[in-house]
Design a protein that fits this description.
Shape of chain B: globular
Order of helices and strands of chain A: EEEEEEEEEEE
Number of helices of chain B: 0
Strand content of chain B: over 45%
Radius of gyration of chain A: 13 Å
Number of strands of chain A: 11
Radius of gyration of chain B: 14 Å
Distance between the termini of chain B: 41 Å
Structural class of chain B: mainly beta
Helix content of chain B: under 10%
Strand content of chain A: over 45%
Oligomer: heterodimer
Order of helices and strands of chain B: EEEEEEEEEEEE
Largest interface: A-B, 26 and 19 residues
Helix content of chain A: under 10%
Largest sheet of chain B: 6 strands, mixed
Structural class of chain A: mainly beta
Shape of chain A: globular
Distance between the termini of chain A: 35 Å
Number of strands of chain B: 12
Chain lengths: 112, 116
């Protein structure tokens, strides 16, 4: 039962380091979404990608954050020079065209 | 702009009680989808249901039922005979049905605690 796979499950970084979060979509899913959940809050959309293309990045912070979904391999959410405020749970979801999104277990990012 | 409001922050019930989680949404789109997701204490997000804006039929799945009313822009979720395993945070969400983006707009979530 290969659902959406995210790794690592937990990630600890010091301020100023880089964080790389990986997401392998479900088999047959070509749409990938990233969401962020701050403590005690709901999920906020960050970015929507299809293979090799960013379709909607309206929720991405303007600086330090980037995402990719290469032709081969997982989608990567990259956060450069992390700050304390980046501490959150980051969820990836995938779907087929016009189908519901299915979520991974999330990556809990903690910044020391 | 699209918005989802879950006015109930926390609900506590005793096992076997029925409980309804409220969801009110705002959108200018005529075609849209509504969703419910469950986030148990382990943290993952579990898809429960998706409804199309053209389909106002109520849906029942076991102990779960959903009431979609366009007239009041509501999509409420009822759990019948609640169980301790239903304890979780429940999120209502909205997305547009047309266009390239299927991004979900989530409500703040309702924390349901079911006591034995």
């Amino acid at each position: 039962n290969a659902g959406v796979m995210q790794n690592p499950r937990h990630l600890v970084r010091r301020r100023g380091q880089e964080a790389r979060l990986r997401c392998s979509p479900m088999k047959g899913h070509s749409h990938v979404y990233w969401y962020r959940q701050l403590p005690e809050e709901g999920l906020k959309f960050m970015v929507y990608l299809q293979k090799e293309n960013i379709i909607d990045e309206s929720g991405m912070p303007k600086e330090r954050f980037s995402a990719e979904f290469p032709k081969e391999g997982p989608s990567i959410l990259r956060i450069q020079q992390v700050v304390r405020g980046d501490s959150a749970a980051y969820f990836c979801a995938s779907s087929r065209q016009d189908q519901p999104q299915h979520f991974g277990d999330g990556t809990r990012l903690s910044i020391l | 702009a699209q918005k989802v409001t879950q006015a109930q922050t926390e609900i506590s019930v005793v096992e076997k009680e029925d409980v309804t989680l409220d969801c009110v949404y705002e959108t200018r789109d005529t075609t849209y989808y509504l969703f419910w997701y469950k986030q148990p204490p382990s943290g993952e997000l579990v898809f429960l249901i998706r409804r199309n804006s053209f389909d106002e039929q109520n849906e029942i799945s076991g102990r779960y039922s959903w009431n979609f009313q366009k007239s009041t822009s509501s999509f409420n979720f009822t759990i019948t005979a609640s169980q301790v395993v239903d304890s979780a945070v429940y999120f209502c969400a909205l997305s547009e049905a047309r266009g390239n983006t299927g991004k979900l707009i989530f409500g703040q979530g309702t924390t349901l605690q079911v006591k034995p």
